[in-house]
Amino acid sequence: MSDTGPTAPRKTDRWLEPGPTNAQVIYFLYLACFVVGITAIVGVVMAYMNRGKAGGMVETHYTFLIRTFWIGLAYALISAVLIVAAIGVVLMLAVAIWIIARCLIGLQALQRNEPIKNPTSWFLGT
Question: Which residues of 94-106 are buried (b: 16+ CB within 10 A; e: fewer)?
Fold first, then answer.
């Protein structure tokens, strides 16, 4: 039996570590929730697990991601209740557009290595 020493982490493991790659994965999980709903829950859990560990501009993205989940959930619940009044369908479409817009803004900022300007915003964070 030969001991080759500690194994180096694989390049594919980086997406689990706090940082820009992880935040990007979470944005994609949020976008995938329109096809597979549970991915948003996985994304917010990952954001909570990595918040406070990355530092720098990525922290603004984790705050933005967490708030996107909770505010989006609140908007969706309000829209679901208002479906009885027929306005809920239009509001649900607006919520979907809002989530997609926030994810795209976040992804673009990540690619430019920029923080989210106003991560606690209820609108688009710009």
Answer: ebbebbeebbebb
**Tens digits of residue pLDDT in 12-27:** 556 667 888 999 999 9
126, 108 contact by CB (below 8 A): no
pTM here is 0.85
pLDDT in tens, 39-85: 999 999 999 999 888 888 999 999 999 999 999 999 999 999 999 88
**What DSSP element (H or E) covers 86?**
none
Measured distance CA(100)–CA(78) in Å, rounded: 18
Alpha-carbon span 15 to 26, nearest angstrom? 10
Residue 19's pLDDT is: 84
Q: CA 39, 45, 46, 47 torsion: positive or negative?
A: positive
Contact criterion met (CB below 8 Å) for 32 and 19: no
Q: What angle do CA 9, 10, 13 make, to 5 degrees?
A: 90
Q: What would the two tokens of residue 116 be?
A: 């989210």
Host H or E run for residue 118? none
